Amino acid sequence: MALRLEDKKKVVADVSKVATSALSLVIADSRGVSVADMTRLRAEARANQVYMRVTPNNLAKFAVAGTEYECAVESFRGPTLLGFSMEDPGAAARLFKDFSKENDKFEIKALAVGGELLGAEQIDRLAKLPTREQALSMLAAVTLAPVTKLVRTFNDVPGRVTRVVHAVAEQKKAA
């Protein structure tokens, strides 16, 4: 069914609004994927704060104009499924990568992050980014490591003194 002008404007406005606040974009082709699988993908996308939308290419080009995803315009060929990560930059990449492993017909075309267009072969680069919670725990571990080492060093000093005193006492007993 053809879209009316008002509907087209609404699609462009919705996608443009999302694109201005999104952290990354993954572009895919979902031709041949069953409706049940796409429904499951959409449910997983909602759970992971990923905005997914099949958008006509001309409307997608208008929607990303003036955003950091304008670099991805050349990838808008054929059926285009847009996946915008809203809270975690790697969420859409992980979601689409896992889905493409299960569905041979699902093809990742390209990714865009920070105004840079990446090829589909670089999906791991984005998918392996840690989530916010993982990054915070890694930061906590890094900041905690020196303190832990200092405490172990301080605890080791009395232990060494005790061992030296014990060794001296054993030597005197033996002599």
From TrEMBL:
<dbReference type="InterPro" id="IPR002363">
    <property type="entry name" value="Ribosomal_uL10_CS_bac"/>
</dbReference>
<dbReference type="GO" id="GO:0070180">
    <property type="term" value="F:large ribosomal subunit rRNA binding"/>
</dbReference>
<keyword id="KW-0699">rRNA-binding</keyword>
<dbReference type="InterPro" id="IPR047865">
    <property type="entry name" value="Ribosomal_uL10_bac_type"/>
</dbReference>
<dbReference type="InterPro" id="IPR022973">
    <property type="entry name" value="Ribosomal_uL10_bac"/>
</dbReference>
<dbReference type="Pfam" id="PF00466">
    <property type="entry name" value="Ribosomal_L10"/>
</dbReference>
<comment type="subunit">
    <text>Part of the ribosomal stalk of the 50S ribosomal subunit. The N-terminus interacts with L11 and the large rRNA to form the base of the stalk. The C-terminus forms an elongated spine to which L12 dimers bind in a sequential fashion forming a multimeric L10(L12)X complex.</text>
</comment>
<comment type="similarity">
    <text>Belongs to the universal ribosomal protein uL10 family.</text>
</comment>
<dbReference type="GO" id="GO:0006412">
    <property type="term" value="P:translation"/>
</dbReference>
<dbReference type="GO" id="GO:0003735">
    <property type="term" value="F:structural constituent of ribosome"/>
</dbReference>
<keyword id="KW-0694">RNA-binding</keyword>
<dbReference type="GO" id="GO:0015934">
    <property type="term" value="C:large ribosomal subunit"/>
</dbReference>
<comment type="function">
    <text>Forms part of the ribosomal stalk, playing a central role in the interaction of the ribosome with GTP-bound translation factors.</text>
</comment>
<dbReference type="InterPro" id="IPR001790">
    <property type="entry name" value="Ribosomal_uL10"/>
</dbReference>
<keyword id="KW-0687">Ribonucleoprotein</keyword>
<protein>
    <recommendedName>
        <fullName>Large ribosomal subunit protein uL10</fullName>
    </recommendedName>
</protein>
<dbReference type="InterPro" id="IPR043141">
    <property type="entry name" value="Ribosomal_uL10-like_sf"/>
</dbReference>
<keyword id="KW-0689">Ribosomal protein</keyword>
